Amino acid sequence: VPAARDRLRIAIQKSGRLGEPARALLASCGLSWRESRDKLFCYGETLPVDLLLVRDDDIPGLLADGVCDYGIVGRNVLEEFAAERAGGGKPAVSKEIRPLGFGGCRLDIAVPDAWEWEGPQQLQGKRIATSYPGLLAKWLAEQQVEAGVVMLSGSVEIAPRLGQADVICDLVSSGATLVANQLKPAVTIMQSEAVLAGPLQPFSDIRGELAQMLLRRLDGVLRLKD
Ligand code: PRP
Ligand code: ZN
Ligand code: MG
After folding, report:
1. Which pTM was predicted?
2. What is the Å distance from ligand 3's center to 177 Cα?
3. Do domains 8-103+193-225 and 105-192 have the same CATH topology?
4. Which of 18, 78, 159, 225 could form a disulfide with 129 if both were Cys (CB 3.0 to 4.6 A apart)?
5. Helix or strand or coil: residue 194?
6. What positions does the domain ATP phosphoribosyltransferase catalytic occupy (predicted)?
7. CATH architecture assigned to 8-103+193-225
C-alpha cells in the first residue's frame, strides 16, 4: 500500500498492551475504520485517517521511512530507536508529540533477590541482559559504569537463571514478571507510557490540516480523561 499524501496513516500495535487502548483513543477522537480482510490495514471512514497494525518495535522505523505519518508506541521503543541512531551518528527523524496517559511502565535494572543493592557502581564488569541496548548504553555511560550488554529480543527475565547474564534491564509494569523470576527492581532508568510519535516538522501538504484537526480532538479527549 503506497503512502497516500492526502490521507494520514497511523501505526499502532497489532496485539499486546497498547493496541486496544490506542485504537479506543483514536475512536474517541471520532475516527472509524473499515477493516481489511487480513486486519492489518484499517481504512478510515469518517476521516481520511488510516491505521496500520504492526509490531510495536517496527513503529519507529516505519515513521523514519515515511511509511506512516504517526505512531502510537511506548516511549521506551521510540527512545531506543533514537538512541541506536544517535549511537551510529544518525540524526533524529521523529519525536514524541503527546504523552497519552496509558501503558505506563518503567525501564528498570533488576537484580537477583539475593543481591543487596548498593548503587550503579555495583554493575561494573557485570553482564546485563536487555532488549534496550541503546538506552542501557546511554545510562551506563552517564553513570560511568562499564558493563557487558547481552542483547535479547525477549524472555530477558530468564537470562540470570540461565547464567547468560548477572542482571537485567527490562520493562516493569506490575512487577509480577520480576517476582516470578526471583528478581527485584534496583534502579529506574526511564519512565515510559504510550506516546503519539510523529514528524519533527509539520506536514506541508493536506496532511498538515488533517493532523491539526486530529491533535485538537486528541487534546480535547486527553483533557477529559485527566
Ligand atoms: C514486558 C517485559 C516483561 C513484562 C513485565 O514485556 O518484557 O516481560 O512486560 O510486566 P509485569 O511487570 O507486569 O510483569 P511485554 O509483555 O510488554 O512485551 P514483550 O513481549 O515485547 O516482552
Ligand atoms: Zn515488543
Ligand atoms: Mg516480556
Report:
1. 0.94
2. 8
3. yes
4. 159
5. strand
6. 55-217
7. 3-Layer(aba) Sandwich (3.40)
CATH node for 105-192: 3.40.190.10
Residue 190 CA, ligand 1 centroid: distance in Å:
15
Asked if residue 103 lies in contact with residue 133, where contact means CB atoms within 8 angstroms, the answer is no
Provide φ and ψ at 121, rounded to 5°.
-60, -25
ipTM of the complex: 0.93
By CB atoms closer than 10 A (0-12, 13-18, 19+), residue 60 is: buried
Q: Which helix (H) or strand (E) holds 79?
A: helix 75-87
Distance, first Cα to last Cα, the chain: 37
Cα 140 to Cα 146: distance, rounded to the nearest angstrom: 7
Query: Is any ligand 1 atom within 6 A of the Cβ of residue 18?
Result: no
Ligand lying nearest the CA atom of residue 177: 1
Q: Which helix (H) or strand (E) holds 22?
A: helix 19-28
Probe target for ligand 1 pocket from 77, 173, 192, with the most ligand atoms within 8 Å of CB: 173
- Residue 174 Cβ contacting ligand 1 at under 6 Å: yes
Q: What is the pLDDT along the chain (226 residues), one digit of tens a residue?
A: 555 689 999 999 999 999 999 999 999 999 999 987 778 999 999 999 999 999 999 999 999 999 999 999 999 999 999 999 999 999 999 999 999 999 999 999 999 999 999 999 999 999 999 999 999 999 999 999 999 999 999 999 999 999 999 999 999 999 999 999 999 999 999 999 999 999 999 999 999 999 999 999 999 999 988 7
